[in-house]
């Protein structure tokens, strides 16, 4: 015969961890037709006549206790479920913070897409370069100031018998002759985006920075094609209301050479903001970078006949054009890792 106290104890333990969905199975186990309590009633015939009354009363009390415990647990679980947070699957999900591409990467992608639309192929040339490609092939003599170690980072490595010392490339222009060699002959339409290195560090310079180089060589190329391309880029990147101008300048690898100015992106060429003189431009213009017609000596180094072909090139700093677009006043913010700055973009 089953022990009544053990049945009650086992039930109490089972109720401690039961769920509402499992409670019905527990009720059948104890109170069902073939349950433990009914099993005890079936065994009354084994009890002596003198003990049957007391035995029957004890089984009834057990049944009442079992029933009361199960009902109490059911009320507890139903109340708990009613008070639980309801999930409405039709509601929109929660907005969680998302990461994004770095501001420099965004700029590189945008610039690449702008030039891709007019047939320029994106290239990338070595960040560790030979002196020849960085200087000599670009019409820079051995005594040119840019070849001084105050301006260029030289690498402690044996000199090449033909190409000279090894350097961290100071500008993307080092890819010009390499691209001419790669294609062999025009037409050439290249956009070269890469890291460049110069030993400077202040609000507008960092030892490592990004440049993008444009190179176009073909028959009949002239300054009007150069100006049209720069106008196209400026309007696509800064806005349709931005104008450009060319100022005569000197670069060793272009002739004629120009500095490119664009309408100030802060005052939009008005020279004033809220009735005060613009502190960014002071003249309505901002300097974008350098450009010009490719020097015949550079074409010669690229094994291209300058009597048949002409071309233009430009070199702009990516950090600088981003600064001009968004009004950033310190290039070092890009590399600070400060999430408060980066998440604005």
Describe the structure.
- By secondary structure, this protein is α+β, with helices and mostly antiparallel strands.
- It has 2 domains: 4-83, no CATH class; 109-121 and 179-342, 2-Layer Sandwich (BirA Bifunctional Protein, domain 2).
- It is 37% helix and 20% strand.
- Strands 1-4-5-11-10-7-6 form a 7-stranded mixed β-sheet.
- It is elongated.
**Order of strands in the sheet with the most strands?**
1-4-5-11-10-7-6
Number of helices: 11
Characterize the biggest β-sheet: 7 strands, mixed
Q: From the structure provided, what is the oligomeric state, counting identical versus distinct chains?
A: single chain
Q: Which structural class best describes the helix and strand composition? A: alpha+beta
Reading off the top of the CATH hierarchy, the class of the largest domain is best stated as: Alpha Beta
The total tally of domains equals 2
- Architecture (CATH level 2) name of the largest domain: 2-Layer Sandwich
Name the beta content range: 15-25%
The CATH homologous superfamily of the largest domain is named Bira Bifunctional Protein, Domain 2
Rounded to the nearest angstrom, the distance between the terminal CA atoms is 78 Å
Q: What are the low-pLDDT stretches, counting only 5+ consecutive residues below 50?
A: none
- Overall outline: elongated
- Quote the CATH topology of the largest domain: BirA Bifunctional Protein, domain 2
Residue share in helix: 25-40%
Order of helices and strands: HHHHHEEHEHEEHEEEEEHEHH
């Amino acid at each position: 015969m089953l022990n009544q106290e053990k049945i009650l104890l086992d039930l109490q333990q089972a109720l401690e961890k039961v769920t509402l969905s499992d409670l019905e199975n527990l009720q059948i186990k104890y109170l069902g037709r073939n349950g433990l309590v009914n099993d005890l009633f079936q065994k009354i015939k084994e009890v002596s006549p003198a003990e049957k009354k007391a035995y029957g009363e004890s089984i009834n009390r057990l049944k009442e206790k079992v029933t009361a415990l199960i009902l109490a647990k059911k009320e507890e679980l139903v109340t708990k479920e009613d008070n639980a947070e309801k999930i409405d699957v039709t509601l929109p999900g929660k907005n969680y913070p998302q990461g994004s591409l770095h501001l420099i990467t965004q700029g590189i992608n945008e610039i690449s897409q702008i030039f891709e639309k007019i047939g320029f192929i994106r290239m990338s040339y070595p960040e560790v370069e030979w002196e020849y490609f960085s200087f000599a092939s670009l019409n820079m003599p051995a005594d040119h100031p840019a070849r001084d170690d105050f301006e260029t980072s030289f690498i402690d490595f044996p000199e090449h018998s033909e190409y000279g010392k090894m350097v961290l490339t100071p500008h993307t222009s080092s890819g010009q002759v390499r691209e001419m060699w790669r294609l062999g002959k025009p037409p050439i339409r290249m956009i070269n985006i890469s890291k460049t290195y110069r030993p400077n560090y202040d609000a507008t310079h960092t030892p490592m920075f990004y440049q993008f180089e444009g190179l176009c060589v073909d028959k009949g190329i002239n300054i009007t094609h150069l100006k049209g391309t720069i106008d196209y880029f400026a309007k696509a990147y800064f806005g349709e209301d931005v104008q450009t101008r060319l100022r005569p300048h000197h670069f060793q690898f272009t002739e004629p050479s120009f500095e490119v100015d664009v309408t100030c992106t802060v005052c939009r060429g008005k020279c004033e903001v809220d009735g005060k003189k613009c502190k960014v431009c002071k003249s309505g213009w901002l300097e974008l970078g350098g450009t010009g017609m490719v020097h015949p000596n550079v074409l010669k180094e690229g094994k291209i006949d300058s009597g048949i072909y002409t071309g233009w090139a430009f070199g702009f700093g990516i950090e600088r054009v981003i600064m001009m677009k968004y009004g950033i006043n310190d290039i070092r913010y890009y590399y600070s890792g400060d999430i408060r700055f980066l998440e604005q973009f």
